[in-house]
Amino acid sequence: MSRTILRYAALTIGAIAMVGPFVWMVLTSVTGDTQLGRVDAPLLPDPATVDPYARLGDAFPFWRFAANSIGVAVASTLLQLFTSATAAYAFSRLRFRGSNLVFLLYLATMMIPMQVIIVPLFIEMRYLGLVDSYAGLLLPTVVSSFGVFMLRQAFMALPKELDEAAYVDGAGHVRVFAQVLLPLVAPALATFAVFAFMSSWNAFLWPLVIAQTEAHMTLPVGLSLLQGRYSTAWNVVMAGSTVSVLPILALYVFAQRYVVRGITFTGIKS
Amino acid sequence: MSATQVATRPPVAKPAARRRPGRARRWRTAGAAAAFLSPSLVMLLAFWIGPMVGTLWVSLQDWNLIGTAEFVGFDNYTELAGDAGFRAALGHTLLYLAGYLPLVLILGLAVALLLDAKLPAMTLYRATFFLPVISSWVAVSLLWKWLLNPADGLVNRALGWVGVSGPGWWTDPQWAMPSVVLASAWKDVGFVAVILLAGLQAIPRDLLEAAALDGAGAWRKLRSITLPMLSPSLFFVTVISLINGFQVFDQVWVMTEGGPGGASTVVVQQIVEYAFSYGRVGYASAMSIVLFLVILAVTAVQLRLQRRWVHYE
């Protein structure tokens, strides 16, 4: 019994350490300028104000950044689902020469971090005339070897008899893929979709490099600049941070088991 | 197209289908494979594998992106070997890892052990530890920069209540990297914990119960059963955390911008600065290659060492 109480006590301390900073973020975001930065100021803003949120758009097209983030994240997620699922189908359902070798190539790219290829990637985008464009933001993110790997596992768990039955009924590959198998791997698709959206929404390095004008910046890039220009207005900066965390929080509440499944999936496959 | 429909068909259909894998069908399959693979393969070649090869090529050039590239062989690498700034950045990256890795592994293990119980509200607790994991590095870094604000940040205010005067955190060269480490470990504890938790839940309960019957205490069970059984998961998070740690950038860029006075400049930051601020893309690419080789070497060493401590069943 006492052991259970100790466990809860330790977990509660940990939980406070995890949630407390976010609470402070939100509290700061509704604090007026006069109380901000005073060491003797009360912890609870008095009175609370939404003024920092109203000022988010003052120095920057902040809401434009948010719209860019949503657009890029949604497009990137949909395209990743398409490229990953089709490739997963080929690797799990079609026997072709060199299949293992090509799959190895996919796996190998999982080990290449964006940080390592960023310079030639940027040079390539320059040649394509895509620096500071939506296409430039989007293109390097439309394929995920992790997604291919994950969906391939899901496809492989489905019995081959399913396809055979469909072939006998006269279905082609496209129909087998889209109408027979895809609905059956919906949970894996959902898990990967949540993952793809999160990583696109939170991405920083590539958007920082490729977006050069405010028209094409995403929320994380905009936020990082917000602190530079508003060096002391922490309430405005925290309002921006709150806005950037809210959608992902909503997604998490909605799709919690998919998020956790995605994380553990990477762990189990070690 | 359902399975029952097939079952009712005369069995004659089966041998016919089995005889067919002839040349025509093989070609059809190859065509389908090409069609299904091409969306991802084209993108992968264009935006990952191509640039990877490109990094090698560019690293042998002297190029400022404006003029023409000039082949200089390994000059960039030899210059890199004598570059004190790069050595410092590598040192800061290692310093980051030296703080971050033990912190995130020990805390992550502790949280996973605490969460590994069939008790009420565990899902809720797990969700709270996961909040930072799903937030962006930029948001987390800004949040911690504000918490660790030297004068009026919550952390130093709280320290003041108990009579401690807190350090200057990210404004102090000595404390800049520890500030980054603190924020990073806080963000990643939940990630490590969830992976380790999955590993813990795969350990058969009867093993622990049998040990308890034999009189093993909590500490003994942890050392003799839980940790060895958990070693594959521990190995996995260690490898992942190391690879990610070498690429640390976002949180440094936002919290300290590498300062003060270059005290927390890391390797990726140098790559970005040389390529996009100083316009030396060849030199920056050489740094990328070195970083990649370091990650590769460390991962290879870990794979070798795993035989010593990782137990697979």
From TrEMBL, chain A:
Coiled coil: none annotated. InterPro entries: MetI-like (IPR000515), MetI-like_sf (IPR035906). It comes from the Bacteria. It is a multi-pass membrane protein. The chain crosses the membrane at residues 5-27, 70-91, 103-123, 135-155, 176-198, 233-255. Residues 66-255 form the ABC transmembrane type-1 domain. The keyword Cell membrane applies. Gene3D superfamilies: MetI-like. Pfam families: BPD_transp_1. Keywords: Cell membrane, Membrane, Transmembrane, Transmembrane helix, Transport. It is found in: Cell membrane. GO terms for biological process: transmembrane transport. Belongs to the binding-protein-dependent transport system permease family. PANTHER family: ABC TRANSPORTER PERMEASE PROTEIN MG189-RELATED, ABC TRANSPORTER PERMEASE PROTEIN MG189-RELATED-RELATED. This is Sugar ABC transporter permease. The lineage of its organism: Bacteria, Bacillati, Actinomycetota, Actinomycetes, Micromonosporales.
Automatic annotation (TrEMBL), chain B:
Residues 1-15 have a biased composition (Low complexity). The chain crosses the membrane at residues 27-49, 94-115, 127-147, 175-198, 229-249, 283-303. It is found in: Cell membrane. The keyword Hydrolase does not apply. GO terms for biological process: transmembrane transport. The keyword Membrane applies. It is a multi-pass membrane protein. Pfam families: BPD_transp_1. InterPro entries: ABC_transporter_permease, MetI-like, MetI-like_sf. CDD domains: TM_PBP2. GO terms for cellular component: plasma membrane. Residues 1-23 are annotated as: Disordered. It comes from the Bacteria. Residues 90-302 form the ABC transmembrane type-1 domain. Keywords: Cell membrane, Membrane, Transmembrane, Transmembrane helix, Transport. Belongs to the binding-protein-dependent transport system permease family. This is Sugar ABC transporter permease. The lineage of its organism: Bacteria, Bacillati, Actinomycetota, Actinomycetes, Micromonosporales.
